[in-house]
Amino acid sequence: MKTYISLWPAHAPALPFPRTLAILGSTGSIGVSALAVVAQHPDLFRVAALTGGRNARRLAEQAAAFRPGVLAVLDEAVAKELRLLLPAGYHPEILAGPAAFEAVAAMPGADLVLSAIVGAAGFLPTLAAATAGKRIALANKESLVLGGRLIRNACQASGAVVLPVDSEHNALFQALCGHVGENGSENGNDDEMARLILTASGGPFHGKDAAFLAAVTPAQALKHPNWSMGAKVSIDSATLMNKGLEVIEACHLYGLPPARVDVLVHPQSIVHSLVEYVDGSQLAHLGVPDMRIPIAHSLCYPRRVALAMPRLDLASAASLTFEAPDETLFPCLGLAKAAFAASHSHPVALNAANEVAVELFLQGRITFPDIPRLIEAALARHAALKENCGAAELINADAETRRETLADACNRTAE
Ligand code: NAD
Ligand code: MG
Question: Does domain 9-165 correspond to CATH entry 3.40.50.720?
Fold first, then answer.
């Protein structure tokens, strides 16, 4: 796995400003932050398309403000609602249904695609953007977990470039610039990079014990100490599955085996990740925990733009602390690493079981410790797909794991 998909390939053409931007998942937490960046720099972007799932009201407000020519939503009912909410005299094309997001990802009128749908639903649209040769600002880490190999291959074939939005991976990208790839090749000189260190806040339950975890509620789990995020990634942060998915994401982005991707718990969320070089130097990226920073970096790269927001003041940040993660109390991190080691398709099962378990936990139907139990069982059931399988087989495995995990959860609660 030697190919970098997020380091700047020598052949990548410059992308002039204003950039034409399609935002997949504009009504979510990342999407809203991205539009806040665009609103601060209206001269740098033309918003070509916005998409939402079911939140017609927020999408209509965004569309009224940014006037894209294309909108997409999950189904016809939401499309109908959306049409009624749009201002008079504004008639964008409105697409509906899951395939609509792939169409937007590949549309000729956008050269920059922000992939910010949550979960496995973001995979096919991201793959479509990669196949169409877009510059992709990637927030949807699940796409790489599901089909990192297919996305890498598609980028290589089309010349698409992925820029990581996820704060840790964006931090790594920033700490790597000018080091890897200096020989002008996409493979770079990765022998200078010793390892990557992803930081993790530890989530809202950092420092708690097993008895505490057994009784936590969704409301407690949703209360992240440092970041404001969508519900799914907030629960993933509480279980440490987020860091597990991010280890896999880092392996795909930077072409390293998991043995060279470490995790450090850093509760202050100021150091966003570090790169260690073979001479022992560690380069870190620091900043306030606000996703507008990595979003603006990836949308404007290589230009840096001013952002109106509070600055990091290290004097008042007091102490920065670091410790190893507790993988016994939070098994999801280890499960993710085990899935990545098991086969290229075990991460599909990991991700699907996790999405089902998170949803059941949010609905109050299972406990917090049930989340890793259901995932572990799904990984044990999963039979590896063949190495060169296509997207359809991955999607089938995803659907099958969802069905089985739901049945498993029903059986356990019936006992
Ligand atoms: P969110 O739940 O706030 O928003 C998700 C967006 O996807 C919404 O626009 C929603 O309408 C849309 N959506 C949901 N289901 C869909 C479906 N089936 N088809 C099409 N669209 C659908 O999520 P978020 O927190 O913004 O996270 C988005 C992605 O970014 C996730 O992959 C997450 O892991 C990643 N990420 C988020 C953060 C953060 O701070 N929120 C940080 C790093 C990475
Ligand atoms: Mg992250």
Answer: yes
Q: Round to whole Å and give the CA distance between 46 and 68.
A: 8
For ligand 1, whether the C-beta of 294 sits within 6 Å is: no
Q: pLDDT tens-digit profile of 303-342?
A: 999 999 999 999 998 799 999 999 999 999 999 999 999 9
The CATH topology of domain 343-414 is Rna Polymerase Sigma Factor; Chain: A (1.10.1740)
Tokens matching residue 282? 């560690």
Could you tell me the residue ranges of all domains in the chain? 9-165, 343-414
pTM (global) more than 0.90: yes
Contacts of 102 (CB under 8 A, 6+ apart): 124, 125, 127, 128
Q: Please answer whether residues 71 and 82 qualify as being in contact, where contact means their C-beta atoms are separated by less than 8 angstroms.
A: yes
- Name the residue at shortest CA distance from atom 10 of ligand 1: 53
Tell me which residue has its CA closest to atom 18 in ligand 1: 121
Nearest protein Cα to ligand 1, atom 15: 53
User: How far, in Å, is the centroid of ligand 1 from the Cα of 29?
Assistant: 7
Q: What is the pLDDT of residue 187?
A: 40
Whether the CB-CB separation of 241 and 333 falls below 8 Å is answered with yes
